[in-house]
Each structure stands twice: as structure tokens, then as C-alpha cells.
Write a structure and sequence with these properties.
The chain has 517 residues and is of the alpha+beta class. Helices cover 59% and strands 15% of the residues. The chain has a five-stranded antiparallel sheet with strand order 2-1-5-4-3, with helices on both faces. Strands 7-9-10-12-11 form a five-stranded mixed sheet. Strands 6-8 form a two-stranded antiparallel ribbon.
């Protein structure tokens, strides 16, 4: 208060100041302690936050990777589904076109649905014609003018066609920049596959398949798929063309066979008519000759007896020659008549079941004088178990006599003739061989030895006269028995005549319905 004065030393503040300082120190210490604790806690929180951020970043990267992988898997799945659809389409198409041999039908099987299932909007197939020109066979996605333009441009591009002919497949995936630019400019398709249709004879055509600019890119799988399709299409086309060629050849062959058959039928009819006329002519001439020959032989025999008057020896010798030649002419006429009758079917073989050995023994006895005179040995190899054979004794006697006599004529002294026989049970026939060790027959003469009047040109035939009818007559008799006759020979080694006789002659075969003969 005013007017009041206090003494200076009345109140001491030192203790108070000291206590305040201590309190301040204490407060600062407490604050420092709390601040240090909060700092450590802050550092820990900051470290935790850093860990959380790192974890978040890692999760974000993983999430991005998962999304990327999922997109790639979806893309791969889509590609796989597309390829499976393409493979299934290709399999069905291959099965369909491989089952047809009509070229036009093959092309009709490939339509817009097929191209779509393969994943493309444009499909073009060009094939080579016989004049090497290209022809449009399949056109999907191109207008007619565009297809004609592509066709004409390709025909002018020798370098490009040459590469295709060498088997090169072009695609937007692997083509060079120059080739790709050329194809894109020509076909107006950014994504494409261009493949040759290769056949065994070369390139049969060209296959193009593609998409416009807003479509997915071509993959390696697409290229493989379309290459397979091109190969299958080429094979089917080649098969159809080969079938067409075979069909046409067959038609031509059938036409020629029909024409030739008609010609042969007419020729056979002509031959039959000529043969009939020949037989009729031979029969008529033979009968006409037989009458005067009989008279000539009769008068010659009468003159030789001397009943009309004595005949000088010189005249008698000539009459004897007339008689011999008359006998030869009569034999010739008889042989001609027999061949004519057999060929025309007017001679019926009186076949009866017989054993062959007795007849051969009789023939051997009959020919013994000729065998001895020539110095030739005759052997008969006839097995005891030889079955009974149905044959006409008179006619078969002539066959064996002709064959053995012929062998005697061509076998030199000291040679041998062998008659063999054996049964062929599988064919129900007997097989006979008349083999000699004579001079043999040349190959060019073998095919004619059974011709009427044909005589092999050799030294023996020049010395010994004959008619050339014996072998022809023997062959006709064997065939009239339903048998076969043929000859084998080696020059200088001998000749063998073979023939067969069935165990049962057709005219005497058992009737299966009644069991009677």
C-alpha cells in the first residue's frame, strides 16, 4: 500500500527459488522420459508401417501377376478351344471328303460354316487345269470380281508360283516382309495362310485362308492345321482324278471289249461257217473221188490178175504202183472224211469202260515188224493200278498207232519209244505220254504240228511221204473224248506227245438225279 515500507531482509526467497528449480528439473525429467518413450514408440510404429506398406506392395504385385496370369490362361484357353474346334472340324471334313470320289462333291463339302469353325472369314481354292490355267473352285468371302483378279494376278506372278510349286507355305506369321506385303495387297487380308495343294504329280492348286484387319493374329497351330487341310484336300482331289481316269478307262475298255467281242463273235461265226463249208466240201469231194478211185483200183487189180490177158512185167509193175497210190489216196480220203465228221460232230464216240493195257499190247504186236526193221525199242510203262477208262476202242487205237508210227519214223536205229501212263485223280483223268529219242522238232514248228496237211521241213519228211493228217486226226479224236493233246520237244533230244482222257466220257456220265448211267 502507498506509504507502507517493508524491510528488505524481512522475507528470504532463496529457498523458494531452489525448490522451484528442483521442481522444474523434475518436470523436465518427467517430460523427457515421456518424450523418449513416445519417440521409441513412434519409431516402432514407423517400422510397422513400413512393413505393412511392403506387404501391401508385395500383395499388389502378386495381385497384378495373378490378373496377368489369369488373362494369359483365358487367352490360352480360348486359343486351345479354338484349336480343338478347328481340329474337330478338320477331322470331320477329312472324313467327309475322303469318302467321296467325285471332285465336284469334294468342293461342295467346304462351305462358310467350315471356314468359320476354322476361325477364318475368307477361303479361296484354285486348281490347275490341263492347260496350266488356274480355276476357282471354292470362294468364300471374296466377290467374283475380286476372285478373278486374284486368279489372273497369280497366273502372272512366276516367282510366287514357283515358290508354291516348291512346297512353300506362306503365312502372316512367318512370311518375309516382301511376300507378306504382296499377299496382303493382293488378297486384302492381314492375317492369312497360303498353302500349295501338293500331289504326287506336283502342285495341283493353291489354298488361301485369311481374316481382315480386326481379327486375331495367325498362330503356329493355325498354320499347321491349314497345312494338314491342304494335304488332305490335295490327296482327295488326286484320288478323285485317279478314279475318274480309271472309270473312263474302264468305260473305254468295256466299249472296246464289247466291240471286240462282237467282232470275235462274228469272226467265230464266219470261221464256223467256213469250217462247215470246208467239211461239206471235203465230204463232197471225198465221195466224188472215192468212186473213180474204187474203179481205178478195181481195174488195176483185175489187169494184174491176168484174167483179161497176159500183162508184160513192165506194165504189171506200173499197175502195182497204181494200186499202191490208190490205197494211199483212199487212206487220205478216209482221214479227211473222219476229220470232217469229228469236227462237225457227226461221229459219235462209242465209249465203254475198258482197261487200256490190252489195247496197247495189241498195238505193240502190230507194230513189231516196223520196230524190228528200224531197230527201235518200244516200252510200255502202264501201272497195274491204272483205273478203268471210258473210250472208243477203234478211235483210240488210231491215236496210239498214229503217235507210235510217227515216233518210229523220226527215231534213228538204236533209239527207244516209251509209252507212259498215270492217273490224275484230282482231275479224274488219265495222262499218256508217247516219247521218242528222235531228231526233235524246232520251236517254230511246234505250234503247227497239229495243223492239217502241215509237215515239218526236215530230212526225214523229204524222204518219207505222208499226208500231214495223222496228228490232226489224233488230236480231234482225243478232244472228241473230252481230252487234251499237246507236244514238247528239244531238237536232237526227242519229242513227247502228251494227251489226257477222262475216266468217264461225258456221254456216259452218271445221272445225279437217278443214279443211272
Amino acid at each position: 500500500m502507498p506509504g507502507i515500507t517493508y524491510p528488505v531482509n524481512q522475507f528470504d526467497i532463496t529457498p523458494f527459488l531452489m525448490g522451484s528449480s528442483l521442481l522444474l528439473v523434475l518436470i523436465v525429467s518427467v517430460l523427457a522420459y515421456f518424450l523418449i518413450g513416445k519417440s521409441e514408440e513412434y519409431k516402432e510404429l514407423k517400422a510397422s508401417l513400413a512393413k505393412i506398406m511392403n506387404s501391401f506392395n508385395e500383395l499388389d504385385e502378386q495381385a497384378k501377376l495373378i490378373v496377368k496370369t489369369d488373362l494369359e490362361l483365358n487367352k490360352a484357353q480360348g486359343e486351345l478351344d479354338r484349336r480343338l474346334l478347328g481340329l474337330n472340324t478338320l477331322q470331320n471334313l477329312s472324313r467327309t471328303i475322303s469318302m467321296t470320289l467325285d471332285e465336284q462333291e469334294i468342293f461342295q463339302k467346304i462351305n462358310r460354316d467350315i471356314a468359320t469353325e476354322l476361325g477364318f472369314s475368307h477361303f479361296l481354292v484354285l486348281t490347275y487345269e490341263e492347260n496350266s490355267a488356274l480355276r476357282t473352285r471354292i470362294n468364300i468371302g471374296f466377290d467374283t470380281a475380286m476372285a478373278e483378279h486374284i486368279q489372273s494376278e497369280l497366273c502372272l506372278d512366276a516367282e510366287f508360283l514357283g515358290a508354291l510349286k516348291n512346297g512353300t507355305t506362306f503365312s502372316s506369321l512367318n512370311a518375309s516382309q516382301k511376300a507378306k506385303a504382296r499377299i496382303v495387297q493382293l488378297f486384302e487380308n492381314e492375317h492369312f495362310i497360303l498353302s500349295p495343294l501338293l500331289t504326287q504329280r506336283g502342285v495341283g492348286g493353291i489354298l488361301f485362308i485369311g481374316n481382315r484387319y480386326n481379327a486375331p493374329e495367325v498362330t503356329q497351330g493355325d498354320e499347321e492345321l491349314i497345312t494338314i487341310l491342304a494335304g488332305q484336300l490335295a490327296q482327295s482331289l488326286e484320288n478323285s482324278q485317279l478314279f475318274e481316269q480309271v472309270y473312263r478307262s474302264t468305260q473305254m475298255l468295256e466299249t472296246k471289249v464289247a466291240e471286240r467281242t462282237k467282232e470275235l463273235s462274228q469272226a467265230l461265226k464266219d470261221v464256223e461257217d467256213i469250217s462247215k463249208k470246208k467239211s461239206e466240201f471235203i465230204s463232197a469231194v471225198s465221195h466224188e473221188l472215192r468212186t473213180p478211185l474204187t474203179s481205178i483200183k478195181g481195174y488195176a487189180s483185175l489187169l494184174m490178175t491176168g484174167k483179161i490177158g497176159a500183162i508184160p512185167d513192165a506194165v504189171k509193175e506200173r499197175l502195182h504202183k497204181i494200186n499202191i497210190h490208190s490205197d494211199n489216196l483212199v487212206k487220205l480220203i478216209n482221214d479227211l472224211l473222219d476229220i470232217s465228221r469229228i469236227e462237225s460232230g457227226r461221229v459219235e464216240m462209242k465209249a465203254t469202260p475198258q482197261i487200256i493195257r490190252p489195247m496197247l499190247d495189241t498195238i505193240a504186236d502190230l507194230l513189231t515188224p516196223q520196230l524190228k526193221e528200224k531197230g527201235v525199242t518200244l516200252r510200255l510203262n502202264i501201272p497195274s493200278e491204272m483205273p478203268v477208262i471210258e473210250y472208243d476202242t477203234t478211235q483210240m487205237d488210231r491215236v496210239f498207232i498214229n503217235l507210235v508210227s510217227n515216233a518210229i519214223k523220226f527215231t534213228p536205229s538204236g533209239g527207244a519209244i516209251t509209252v507212259n501212263a498215270h492217273p490224275n485223280l484230282a482231275r479224274q483223268e488219265a495222262v499218256f505220254d508217247v516219247a521218242d529219242t528222235g531228231i526233235g522238232i524246232k520251236k517254230e514248228d511246234l505250234i503247227r504240228v497239229f495243223d492239217e496237211f502241215y509237215r515239218v521241213d526236215n530230212e526225214i519228211n523229204m524222204k518219207v511221204k505222208g499226208t500231214g493228217l495223222g496228228l490232226a486226226l489224233a488230236k480231234n479224236i482225243v478232244e472228241a473224248h473230252d481230252g487234251r493233246m499237246w507236244v514238247t520237244s528239244d531238237v536232237g533230244q526227242g519229242t513227247t506227245f502228251h494227251f489226257t482222257l477222262p475216266f468217264q466220257h461225258k456221254q456216259h456220265k452218271t445221272n445225279p438225279a437217278t443214279g443211272a448211267v
